[in-house]
């Protein structure tokens, strides 16, 4: 008997969470195994439920996991150069530093789903309190800003264990506002360079601020 989609998604999230923890601790072998298991579980989920509204999101997560696996495999194979070789020429040192820079805005654009999830509110079962809060705080003010002269919340934190509908709620909100849906996974922010992950997070947040200033719906 096939596992229910909820169970498969929870299983993938657990594999990914364990992989990220191992990754941050330098246990690259365990991290690689965890990322591979997470990707394989999501692939199975997509095969069993090809019409799922969340398959675009799962695809982005799989790409992030696979990309991180390749980086870790290169690291274990000793194919990673130091950030700066003290014996290299000034020009080569400059190039090494350039390679270690955080993700550019162009690469951040890859986090945006080109085809927005077609998830409607009616497809999100239950969670009425959360749906009402999102509508009242985000959707209605964005559609009729003239009725909210004092302003309104620009975002909302959805928290809880995997499989509780957070992604569906976010996808439905993006669909309602015809806004961007941005998929960010911790695996895509991890880095082999010491301190680089923090720079990536900072760069990502700055990129988001730039989008908000352009008055683009998220």
Automatic annotation (TrEMBL):
> MIT domain spans which residues?
5-82
**Single GO molecular function:** ATP binding
Keyword Metal-binding among record annotations: no
Task: Give the UniProt keywords, A-Z.
Answer: ATP-binding, Nucleotide-binding
User: What are the boundaries of the region Disordered?
Assistant: 76-108
Q: What protein am I looking at?
A: ATPase central domain-containing protein
Origin species, per record, is uncultured marine thaumarchaeote AD1000_46_C12
């Amino acid at each position: 008997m096939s596992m229910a989609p909820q169970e498969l998604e929870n299983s993938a999230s657990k594999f990914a969470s364990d992989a990220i923890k191992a990754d941050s601790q330098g246990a690259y072998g365990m991290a690689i195994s965890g990322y591979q298991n997470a990707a394989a579980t999501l692939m199975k989920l997509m095969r069993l439920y090809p019409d799922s509204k969340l398959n675009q999101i799962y695809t982005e997560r799989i790409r992030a996991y696979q990309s991180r696996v390749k980086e870790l495999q290169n690291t274990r194979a000793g194919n990673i150069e130091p950030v700066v070789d003290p014996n290299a020429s000034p020009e080569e040192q400059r190039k090494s530093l350039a390679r270690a820079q955080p993700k550019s805005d162009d690469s951040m654009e890859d986090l945006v789903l080109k085809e927005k999830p077609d998830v409607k509110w009616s497809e999100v079962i239950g969670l009425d309190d959360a749906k009402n809060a999102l509508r009242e705080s985000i959707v209605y003010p964005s559609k009729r800003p003239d009725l909210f002269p004092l302003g309104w919340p620009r975002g909302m934190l959805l928290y809880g264990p995997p499989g509780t509908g957070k992604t569906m709620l976010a996808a439905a909100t993006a669909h309602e506002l015809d806004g961007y849906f941005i998929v960010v996974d911790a695996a895509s922010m991890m880095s082999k360079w010491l301190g680089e992950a923090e720079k990536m997070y900072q760069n990502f947040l700055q990129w988001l601020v730039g989008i908000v200033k352009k008055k683009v719906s998220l």
